[in-house]
Amino acid sequence: MVYAKADGKAMAVALTIADQPVIYLVMHLPHTDADQTAFLTKVRDEMIVAMAKQVGKMENGKRVGAPWAKALVLRAGDMNFTEHHLDNERGLQAPAPMVIAAMRSLDATLGCEADVYRTMEPEGRGHTHGKEGKGRRLDTFGAAAKHLRGPGGVVAHRELSPRATAYSYLDTSTRREVYKESDHSLIQVTLRVSGVVKQPPRPNVNLTSLRSPEVRRVTENLLRQGDRLPREAGSSSYHFERHFAEVHEEVVRACIAQQKQERARRNCLRQRMVTKLERLDSTWQQRWDRVGAQPSTLSAYARTERHVAKLQLGLQKQQHAIRKRKDAQAAYEEQLQSAGMGKAPRKVTRPDPVNRLDLLPDGTPSGVTSQTSQADMLPAVTNYYRQQLNNIYYPRDGTGKSEDQ
Questions:
Q1: In sequence order, what are the residues at sequence separation of 6 or more whose Cβ sits closer than 8 angstroms to the Cβ of residue 381?
Q2: Sign of the C-alpha dihedral, residues 355, 360, 364, 368?
Q3: Which domains does the chain possess?
Q4: Could you tell me which of 278, 29, 328 has the C-alpha nearest to residue 166?
Q5: pLDDT in tens, 166-192
Q6: Strand spans (E) along 67-164
Q7: Within a 13 Å sphere around the CA of 290, how many CA atoms are in the beta-carbon half?
Q8: Which of 206, 192, 205, 109 minimizes the C-alpha distance to 157?
Q9: CA angle 34, 35, 37 (to 5 degrees)
């Protein structure tokens, strides 16, 4: 973290993603024009100091902050105002000129002059806050215009509704289950800083899948197959390492398939509820207007609202059940470890892909020329190791004397 506003309404972090320095600033602006102007001005001044401090950062006598002089900067947050007429279904409510000037000054300082959504979808009508007919796009991402063109930089965006991002947690003070649903949509962007494809994560197997009936049946079938294998002469049991390796692989595949099937079943039920609720939310204004025009439809409106409340309760119960299942699994694993019946799983980390080799095409090390594409890196590294294997190395003077000693 390189910057944090005293009231907690703004924060910036410095990241390194595949050799690409990134500075990410998030903000939550106040509501009035005067407060917004003061907020943006203060954030601009403090970010200038924070970024300069990050660039001049020293560790062990080395200037480790130098790469952040050319960092890719992203700005995001709840702006609490709209500028474009398509961003507000209530009609254009532009902020005061001093707010716009302060926002432009901050973007110029950061180099985030382009609105990601409006650049990618000039005629888009997406909204992040409010119901259908009264929606506003208050939450935005900002980036440099050059990072919104070509195969690199910010290449995609999406919005997730509050229903889809709601979650359950347990209040540590009251020990009561709480269902949390934001009043804003979640916005995401895809940042591509390398052309090298990252390896997919290695699947993990949990204890619940090992105890499932499907995996038990697969394991029993594999063990019965092992009983029919030929045995070594003079031995009362068979010893085939290959068979045990195949058993392990088959069990892992069965566990992964069972976890995927169970996850798909839960997600399908949840997505069905979310889709129904979002569809009913989008027609709420029409239903209410119909009641005003035709009072006889009030009973139908009340039935629909009761159905919405029932769906909301079902969604909450499902979220609580998912959290309970995860908490029970974590408690069970912790109990086994404390009883000495197991050990904590090793953390699986995915190393960042190699996206640059300081080699010439013939494999010769170079401090000037670099290979950055997969098509160029593969022959270069092949030639490099071929040279290492073909080189003849002679012992240094004194090697024999050291061996005699």
A1: 357, 359, 363
A2: negative
A3: 3-192 (3.60.10.10), 207-338 (no CATH), 356-405 (no CATH)
A4: 278
A5: 999 988 888 899 999 998 999 999 999
A6: 72-78, 114-115, 139-143, 153-160
A7: 12
A8: 192
A9: 65
